[in-house]
Amino acid sequence: PYSRAWRSICMVLSEEARRSVRAAHAAHAAAQKLGNRSMAREPSPRVHQNSSSSPPTALVSWAHRGEDWSGEQAAAWTQEVVEFTGALRANGVDADLDLFHADEADIDWTRFGPRAVADSQFVIVAISEAWAQRWSGTNEPSKGAGAVAEADALKGLFQKDQAAWQRKAIVVVLPSQSEAVIPDDLMRATRFWVDPDEP
Known about the structure:
The protein has helices spanning 6-13, 15-21, 29-36, 71-90, 109-119, 129-136, 145-160, 162-168; strands spanning 57-61, 94-96, 122-126, 169-173, 190-193. It is of the alpha/beta class. The longest helix has 20 residues, at 71-90.
């Protein structure tokens, strides 16, 4: 059971997303990319609008795996996050994910996450125990540097402008995860329970 509908998450994002929901497309492109091992980012589907405004932008921040996960658990989580990001894009959100840049030889991974946090209108945290550990600093220090950098960039924004942080940060609980892992100091963020299979 999910207490929020897909339409709700898109409504929170912006007026552009509200207009885009009416013309939602199938959300399989990103999942197919995962199956083909080709994660090069394609342009987001664009809904024809009379307005000249651009679609909202969002970074999906996530931890690739828990420290005690099997390879199968990590693969299933990856697919869930990719399908969620694809569903956002199908609903008119210009959502980005680090995996979409995996084939870019010149990418600087030490700067990718923090720059995306700063440049995106929204940061959507696909919460998991592993991401919560990176937020709280309780992860193994040699693991999850990308998620730690994104969490630190979010914390830096909070220190500078709490209102801007409140508008930017969104926590999403996907079907395989639990809200119980959301850290107490992240509870002030807008939260949604969503299922990519139920657009």
